Amino acid sequence: MKTTFLVLFLCVTSCIDAQTVIFADPELKDDILFYQPELDVNNDGEIQVDEAQSATHLSLSANYYSSVIGIEAFTHITSLFLHVLSLTELDLSSFQNIKDLNLRTSVATIDVSMLPTLENFTIFASSTSNVITGYMPNLKTIDFLQAPIVSLDLTGAENLETAFLDSYLFNDLQIGYKPHLKYLYVWSTSLTNLDLSQCTALIGAEINLGNASHDVHVNLKNGDTDFAEDYMDFVYITDGNPLYHCYICIDEGEEVTFTENSFAPWIFLSPYCTFEPGGSHNTITGSLYLNESGSCEDATELLGYSSITINGNSEVGTVFSNSNVYKFYPGAGTYTLTPQVNTSLFEVNPATASVSFLDNNDNTSTQNFCLTPIGTHPDVEIALIPLQLPQPGFNAVYKIVYTNKGNQTLSGNIIFTYDDALLDYVSATSVESSANIGEIIWSYSDLQFYESREILLTLNVNSPMETPPVNINDVLNLTAVANPIDGDMTPGNNTFALKQTVVGSYDPNDITCLQGSLVNPDKIGDYLHYNINFENTGTAPATFIVVKDIIDAAKYDIASLQLINVSHNMEARVTGNKAEFIFNNINLAAGGKGNVLFKIKTLGTLSVNSEVTQQADIYFDYNWPVLTNEANTVFGVLNTRDFVVDQSVKIYPNPANAVINIQTDSAINSMQLYDIQGRLLQAISGNGNKAIVDVSGRAKGLYFLKITTEKGTKVEKVMVE
Predict the structure, then answer these.
(1) CATH number of domain containing 102
(2) In Å, what is the CA distance from 71 to each residue of 29, 55, 57, 79, 106?
(3) Where does the source fall among the domains of life (predicted)?
(4) Domain count, the chain
(5) Disulfide engineering: 399 pairs with which of 273, 385, 460, 621, CB 3.0-4.6 Å?
(6) What angle do CA 82, 84, 86 make, to 5 degrees?
């Protein structure tokens, strides 16, 4: 009987001991026993497990604990405030119900990856350098102040709303998809990249770069084009080192608003830094294939420039690519894709394709197209592109581009003619078949469907001291012909004539209408060719270059735009009246050059003396865009036929540098000033038999002044000095 009582006593004692929380540090135990509200409910001087589990909050602030082993028993707490600088180890895995966590410790690594209920997380003035995170769906607020954390991955906290991240050592900060993040503060002198492109609800952001000793890239291209306009007062890029740059990627259209915020001069803004939309977006991609064997399954990738048009809910436009991979980035909805192919030459399978997306959650769809030749249609097209304008005594560089636009493999030759008295042939990148006076011929063979080839050609221009001399404003005539012409489907594009005015100097970033500034009115509704040259005039390679051209839809048929030639791999997008030629990863060296050549039809509704204009913005990396000249072309004819000459017209002085005086025997009706290419520059109404034309703002050179009186008309050559 005594033995039975003894066994029972030992069992009860063991069970009681098993329910008691063991604290490794007696001072921690004492603080817990005197904790308010009271935790030792039965006043036995111990904390039982059920007493620990009844607690919902725990706040400990002391610098003398050697260990906090024992608090893991408080498994039901939703709030833990732990400021113990003497602490070097901490296990938080038991707190599966915790919502608020506030730490100030000397623990090097804090692991919160197993706390899915955590909503608010603070680290204050700690020596913590590493925070292990994971899937944290309930985290709303994170506040790190004066914590030397090196890297932080917040991609698993997709419902985060506010983040205050103060760590000068941050060099790797992964924010990720944050559709609810509204406020962000980051302070770091070590950060090199910060990607906020998926923070689509961002209202305010401050990025303090300290005295960073390197360039910093910030991606604010989040797809919210109202962000800058609505919340600019809450966006700051502070401090920083003026010896280095901060490059900020923004959504297109935000340039002006951001600039008005008067950022420091070492901060650069550009919408061209990533070439996909900010935020979540879908992708449609694919290629065009050429079927020569009778089976689309064995088709090969199409050479040359592929062109696809999209039409749908949130996306209407066209993409060109010389890599034969097209991409669109539409939102949710249904879209129709149509290859831009001459259907009298090729059967397209499928002729159109429909793609649908139920949402905007980064879905991808691939749609390829197969082209099969129909009948026999040879067609070769040629273009002559000026890459370096002619100057007296210097070399001029040209590019001859010939393309198989038909559906038959072609062989033939290229004939280039020039005035040998004014120009000397220097060299070409292709070996000529023959070189005669004023004529160079190259042979070609096996030019495939849609394939383009090119020849770079250098000519030397006579100087004013040679015979015959070449001077500024003289006109040079060049012609390129692609054979065979017999049997060609469109023989009109087998010949390209180029008239060039000799210049004294030129801007390397320019746009030129290759048909000139004066075109006969019978060409209204036909194609005009535009070449855009660009040159990296900086001291470092340009990683990307974008050429943007806003096309006047009232004068051009935007749907007719065709890409003829580019110098490097690129992708072109036409959206509305905006054409963008994107050279991503071009890495153009300092002094390196490139070009874009496209053709576009003018509207057939234009009239005689209508003027059309093209101008482009050229973006080199994050630098402010370089604005080209205007390429103006008038549909008209400058001539002196079919009128009576008024010989009483007198002009003086000539040459002139300020004004030209006009005097006649009869009343002056009008005066028009033209440049040497026939472009109307100025029109003035007459009053009486005397008049003055102001030429003080004109460039030096030759002009034509047309004076119309009551008795007739007279055209005078005028030299402006």
Answers:
(1) 3.80.10.10
(2) 10, 11, 11, 12, 17
(3) Bacteria
(4) 4
(5) 385
(6) 155
| Tens digit of each residue's pLDDT (9 = 90 or more) over 205-221 | 888 887 778 888 888 88
Name the more confident of 592 and 698.
592
185 and 230 both lie in a single domain: yes
User: Cβ distance 328 to 312 under 8 Å?
Assistant: no
Six-digit token pair at 171? 């060099």
At residue 678, the pLDDT reads 64
User: CA–CA separation, 599 vs 581, rounded Å?
Assistant: 14
Choose one of 211, 239, 270: the last residue of a domain.
270
Please measure the distance between the N-terminal and C-terminal CA atoms of the chain and give it in whole angstroms.
Answer: 132
**Residue 640: Cβ-neighbour burial (10 angstroms; 0-12, 13-18, 19+):** exposed
Burial class (CB in 10 A: 0-12, 13-18, 19+), 519: buried
At 620, which CATH number? 2.60.40.740
Are 73 and 213 part of one and the same domain? yes
Nearest to 291 by CA among 357, 372, 212, 222: 372
Looking up residue 298, the CATH number of its domain turns out to be 2.60.40.1140
Q: Which domain holds residue 620?
A: 507-636
Per-residue pLDDT tens digits for 110-156? 999 999 999 999 999 888 999 999 999 999 999 999 889 989 999 99
121 in the same domain as 175:
yes
The gap from C-alpha 462 to its chain's centroid, in whole angstroms, comes to: 41
> Are 557 and 591 contained in the same domain?
yes
Q: Is the pLDDT of residue 560 over 60?
A: yes
pLDDT in tens, 632-687: 999 987 554 445 677 889 999 988 999 999 999 888 888 888 876 666 778 787 78
CA distance 314 to 333: 7
